[in-house]
Write a structure and sequence with these properties.
Helix content is about 10%, strand content about 35%. With about 675 residues, it is mainly beta. The longest helix has 16 residues. The N and C termini lie far apart (about 140 Å). About 25% of the residues are buried. This is Type VI secretion system secreted protein VgrG. It comes from Hafnia alvei.
Length: about 675
């Protein structure tokens, strides 16, 4: 091993420590980026298995006069055998931090009631990535966060940028490289002191910096973000953040009409992060140095610069290190000394540098899902008629009331306390779309049938029918309103499984072009508070199989055009407080408190009784529930035989004296 000056060593886990020698390398590292080490090696070994080296741990060490300056540990993602000479074979390796494995997994899933910080921790722990979390502000809990066809690393970066979280990699002597996540520059550690030296050739005995340049850029001066929370639709959910200074003029604004926040607290922070990201590169410096310890997450200090304002601390944003050790190739090299240099990008030490905002992947369009809820329920909703669904791609959540957030259901018409409402039930297949394409804001726009949830019609036979049919909750019944447009058989059908109620505040008008048939299996009550009128232009049949009660508060007036036939099986009792009169033609019988008076001519014991027309009324047609046509049942009525016997006037007078009244005959 070289003991003097700058030199490098490289080791792959499982291989001998001296089996590979470093020829040169390029090492890129930046805030909120995976570092990338590309290294060329040489070895006397010609048969190193390529596949076996992938994902193995590898370490590059930078030494200066035998003192370790820095260790870079990662995993091999690319290993290549190059040219083979007389004695040596050249190899190339590409090293990434262990967090790189998050790029290998793509997933679609939903996180519930977690903060972004908690989700980031889950992603890192899932692949055993060592990490340190250093946060100086609180991060809110989110009800519903979706990862949709993103790699875990893409998802990680999207959430981090939205929450103002930056990261870098820090090498720990005992545990190796770990991912440091922070939400402020305050997490940066103090780095090396660098002496300004304008000479391009560096002595390696001290850390120097040269070729310093500072660049200012004009940027937008204000960020305005707008959003809307449907639970508080009238609230003006709007936030803005601005920066002033040289190169910044008012009027150059970034307006985001869809800010992706639902509450003021998250809106304020989210807008601030967006402004910081826009301003991050408004003043940026570049320089060259020979210090390998200039790295993201560190603040280096410049000394001895002729411009005093430069002699201060600067925050590292990105570095490209280059190292060369041609001695490793010995006689196959062009010779020359070992070198190490880097190119640095930096900002002011107190700059809240943020990564550019990552947008969510947009929904490709509507998709289908199944309505779900708690076990044993058929309908599961909240006060707004929202439901929960299970997406077919969700591999992690059980298909129950925790499978999604509450999702609003688009209805045909709505308003303040009025409109149309039909709640999709558990098991229904629904169409889900997304507001503004946001995968975290699903909206149900309709339902579709499938072999498990079949249509309520026998199709295609019933293709002329249109129906709205419900199902009894936890039962087998249904309510239905159905229209049939089959020519010559047009029909509107209504089925009420239990009660049917109709409320009319003014007039209820019914016009029937032909027949109307009603069949009541129980009681039929009618109450009219004012006047009731009936007009029947033909026959009227009234059949009461038990007792009929008829009561009027004042007069009962019956006007009959021809015959009035009153017939009973036993007796007729007429009771009047003042008078009863029977009159036919010019003859009469009058009963009043003073006695019985008759017309002048009375034939006692002569003549025969008249005969009335027998009852020939019809019973209503019989309706059977569920049948489209009522089957007619002919009336079955028999007259009682004792009513066919003749009755004379004398018998009638005797009956009156004994408080029994029977009337039989023609008109009376």
């Amino acid at each position: 091993m070289i003991k003097n000056g700058m030199f490098f060593t490289f080791n792959i886990q499982g291989l001998a420590s001296d089996s590979l020698r470093v020829v040169d390398f390029t090492f890129d590292e930046a805030v909120s980026e995976l570092f990338d080490l590309q290294i060329q090696l040489v070895s006397f070994e010609q048969n190193i298995d390529l596949n076996s080296q992938l994902l193995r741990s590898a370490t590059l060490k930078i030494w200066n006069s035998g003192v370790l300056q820095r260790k870079i540990t990662g995993i091999i993602i690319h290993f290549e055998r190059g040219q083979t000479g007389v004695r040596r074979t050249y190899w190339r390796a590409r090293i990434k931090p262990e967090a790189w494995v998050l790029t290998l997994t793509q997933d679609s899933r939903i996180f519930h009631q977690l903060s972004f910080v908690q989700i980031l921790s889950i992603l890192l722990k899932q692949d055993n990535v060592r990490s340190q979390l250093q946060f100086f502000t609180s991060h809110p809990t989110h009800e519903y966060v979706t990862q949709k066809r993103e790699t875990n690393w893409e998802f990680f970066n999207r959430l981090a940028s939205q929450e103002g979280i930056i990261y870098w990699f820090d090498e720990n002597e005992s545990s190796g490289a770990s991912l440091v996540c922070a939400d402020s520059y305050q997490a940066c550690l103090q780095g090396p002191d660098l002496v300004y030296n304008p000479e391009p050739i560096f002595p390696y005995k001290e850390s120097v910096i040269s070729d310093i340049s500072i660049r200012a850029m004009s940027t937008s001066s204000k960020v305005i973000q707008k959003d809307r929370n449907w639970l508080n639709p009238e609230y003006r959910l709007r936030h803005e953040d601005s920066q002033s200074g040289a190169g910044k003029r008012s009027g150059f604004n970034i307006f985001e009409s869809y800010g992706r926040f639902q509450y003021d607290a998250s809106g304020t922070e989210n807008t601030r992060y967006r402004m910081q990201a826009i301003q991050s590169n408004s003043l940026i410096g570049q320089a060259v140095s020979n210090c390998i310890n200039v790295m993201p997450g560190k603040i280096f200090t410049v000394n001895s610069h002729p411009i005093e304002s430069m002699n201060t601390g600067w925050q590292v944003i990105s570095v490209r290190h280059r190292g060369s050790m041609p001695q490793s190739a010995e006689e196959e090299s062009d010779g020359g000394a070992n070198t190490l240099s880097n190119e640095i990008s930096f900002v002011e030490q107190d700059c809240e540098w943020k990564k550019a905002f990552f947008y969510k992947p947009l929904s490709d369009g509507p998709e289908v899902a199944t309505v779900v809820g708690p076990k044993g329920e058929e309908i599961y909703t909240n006060e707004y008629g929202c439901v929960k669904v299970a997406f077919h791609w969700n591999r992690y959540d059980p298909a129950d009331d925790r499978a999604s957030c509450w999702i609003r259901v688009a209805q045909g018409w709505n308003g303040g306390g009025f409109g149309f409402m039909a709640i999709p039930r558990i098991g229904h297949e629904v169409i889900v779309t997304y507001l503004d394409g946001d995968i975290d804001r699903p909206l149900i726009t309709g339902c579709v049938y499938n072999p498990r949830s079949r249509p309520p019609l026998n199709l295609p036979a019933d293709k002329t029918r249109t129906t709205f049919k419900t199902k009894t909750h936890k039962g087998d019944g249904f309510n239905e309103l159905r229209f049939d447009d089959n020519l010559g058989k047009e029909e509107i059908y209504i089925h009420a499984q239990y009660d049917m109620k109709s409320e009319v505040l003014n007039r209820d008008i019914l016009w029937v072009g032909k027949d109307k048939i009603s069949h009541v299996l129980g009681q039929h009550h009618l109450r009219v508070e004012d006047e009731k009128r009936d007009l029947i232009k033909k026959d009227y049949s009234l059949n009461v199989e038990q007792t009929m009660h008829l009561k009027t508060g004042e007069n009962l007036l019956i006007v009959n055009g021809d015959e009035f036939h009153l017939k009973t099986g036993s007796k007729i009792f007429l009771d009047a407080g003042a008078e009863i009169t029977l009159k036919a033609g010019g003859n009469f019988i009058c009963l009043d408190p003073s006695g019985i008076r008759t017309s002048e001519i009375v034939f006692m014991g002569e003549g025969s009784p008249g005969k009335g027309t027998d009852w020939d009324g019809k019973l209503p047609e019989d309706l059977q529930p569920g049948k489209n046509k009522a089957e007619f049942q002919p009336p079955m009525v028999e007259a009682r035989p004792e009513l066919e016997n003749s009755l004379c006037i004398e018998c009638l007078l005797n009956a009156i004296k004994s408080d029994a009244s029977v009337v039989q005959g023609e008109s009376v």
